[in-house]
Amino acid sequence: MAPCPRSRRSPPRRDILRSEGQRKVEVAMRMQRWIFLSAAILVMTPAKAQMYDPSFPVCLQVWQWGGGYYFDCSYTTWDQCRASGSGRAAMCLVNPYWNRAQPRSSGGRFY
User: Rounded to whole angstroms, how far apart are CA atoms 64 and 62?
Assistant: First the structure.
């Protein structure tokens, strides 16, 4: 009787040959990699909501050390804003969300 050729035999499975300890280490390393990657993504892009107060017509944009900036929309006049921004890295802007008083219509339709 002739022996079976080697080419027909299926290759041994790697996961069967690994010990239980090796599998636990591998799973822990994969989890550690995903946790580190997720944390790096969250730290790289901090999200900060910008709030404009629609009650005031003038905003002061102030630049901070390190490249950040913020808006302070609490001024009713340009002079107030300029006085507050004097001596700082700042600039006065028109508040894009200011609720301007809308002129009353004469009863006609707007098209």
Answer: 6
Which residues does the chain have with pLDDT short of 70?
A: 1-18, 42-51, 101-111
DSSP state of 48: -
Judge contact between 90 and 61, C-beta under 8 A.
yes
Closest by Cα among 33, 77, 85 to 57: 77
| Predicted pLDDT of residue 60 | 93
Q: Which residues pair with 69 in a beta bridge?
A: 63
Please tell me the pTM assigned to this model.
Answer: 0.46
| Amino acid in the structure at residue 28 | A
Q: Rounded CA gap, 74 and 68, in Å?
A: 20
